[in-house]
Amino acid sequence: MNPLRELGKWIEEAREEGIAQPASVAFVTVGSDGRPSVRTVTLKRLEDDALVFTTALWTRKAQEVEANPHVALLFHWPQLGRQAHLTGTASQADRSLAEELFDERDLVNQLQTVVSRQGEPIDDLEPLRDRLAHLATVQETVPVCPTDWGALRVRVESIELWTESDDRLHDRRLYSRDGEGWSLTLLSP
To answer: What is the pTM of this model?
Structure first.
């Protein structure tokens, strides 16, 4: 069994239940100082052995992944009593995938990418809002994917699928990469 397929089913079930942002996930990297850093990102694609995200390549997240590719992720759907804890190795994906995923973004998200240098210090939001509004009214063609925009692929090494139980004896299934397959270990709650 491929636990990433089950993760995909869980995301779909969360979407069907009307849970806001069902593909949101906490994404943990480690800085050069050894300190963890976490942010919430949106899963863009689920592959057979990897998760795919997009990011500006100048961000702290991208820089930390380049320096230390080991990452951790946490999906949490409290309404469903489910969590998925993952570890893996992240790397920059092919440019063609970044372009494909950029093209799938809503126009306002594409324009925001062009307007804002995510994570860089600013004095005021208003100039960015003004520029975004201006581009939204004058943009005649869809923006092209910026050269400093990329896709990150996280090859999953372990995934724990956690299901809450009323008696506190939660179901914890830990899948670990075993060659090209997966080994399963049940964990005590």
So the answer is: 0.87
